[in-house]
Amino acid sequence: MFSAARSSIRRAYSTASAKKLTIGLIPGDGIGREVIPAGKQVLQALPSQFGLNFEFVDLNAGFDYFKKTGTALPEETVQILKQSCDGALFGAVSSPTTKVAGYSSPIVALRKKMGLYANVRPVKWVEGVGRPVDMVIVRENTEDLYIKEERIFEKDGQKVAEAIKRISENASKKIGKIALEIALKRQKVRELGGSSLHTSPSITVVHKSNVLSVSDGLFRETVKGVYQSDLARYGSIEYKEQIVDSMVYKMFRQPEEFDVVVAPNLYGDILSDGAAALVGSLGVVSSANVGDDFVIGEPTHGSAPDIEGKGISNPVATIRSTAMMLEFMGYQEPAAKIYAAVDANLKENKVVTPDLGGNSTTQEVVEDIIKRL
């Protein structure tokens, strides 16, 4: 069980009193092994004024580990995270497109085992990089088609494959509430002088209940119910809905319209990866897997075997994910310092990796960002 000192991130939100933090490092596969060290370096380079001391624990998971051991997510990794770590960083995982007996995604399993029910993915424009956009996609992280309950059978001599799509009221309530709280938090930052394309908060619920009236219908009605049940708190937030296909269209045509977007697991996955195109590259888009008791920062790119070992993988997504981890642990000031250093690097656009049109190495980008701290 979680130790008393770090039993709740909610407690950390309010106190942020811990000074010595133990961070689990799970590189995973491919370029994950190249970018996770970037997050570690940035944490170690934080100015002493924040009074944070870090210890790091190297942990195993991934497809490469599965090929060696037959296990993608060893129980030891889960137990060390639960018993010894205050937060964690996860690099990338290879996902074979064809079925491999005994293998399933370790990050999907880790989200369930650690109770990380929300995947929070900001997509924010930096002047000169991509299109004007400032939104957060909040993705339900534990169910939908990602429960991986599938079967194949024969009917009339032909194979038929089925997958269960599960939407629960409980999970929908939790993701609706955290999305609304994020909308309030973003508005507070704006009122304190933070830059934004928006002047007021809004939340957009994405669904396909015109076709999936039972499953997506439950998601839509439940999130709406969370909003309507506490208008004293959430009434300042504009409530909107968008059918997923039209959401994709509008997101690319009018991205500046969206503030906080909340969606079931599959839609959220597709939308957040697609939204990365608005700001230049998956290499700059961060995410955090958030629960009531733990948070794991995770860059949104994959293992990128085509550039593995070349030293040119973009560390920005990992560094931003590191800042997100700190932010959701309650350490907003050092997180803001990291965000500002990354933004300055991108805005200057001199020391960037090839995916952004530059010729710098991974380590050169890390060093440039650290200088800006």
Automatic annotation (TrEMBL):
Cofactor: Mg(2+)
Domain Isopropylmalate dehydrogenase-like stretches: 22-369
Record-linked Gene3D superfamilies: Isopropylmalate Dehydrogenase
Key words of the record: Amino-acid biosynthesis, Lysine biosynthesis, Magnesium, Metal-binding, NAD, Oxidoreductase, Phosphoprotein
Pathway: Amino-acid biosynthesis; L-lysine biosynthesis via AAA pathway; L-alpha-aminoadipate from 2-oxoglutarate: step 4/5
Protein name in UniProt: homoisocitrate dehydrogenase
An example Gene Ontology molecular-function term: magnesium ion binding
Segments traversing the membrane: none
Recorded family membership: Belongs to the isocitrate and isopropylmalate dehydrogenases family.
GO cellular component terms attached to this protein's record: mitochondrion
UniProt key word Acetylation: no
EC nos: 1.1.1.87
Domain of life: Eukaryota
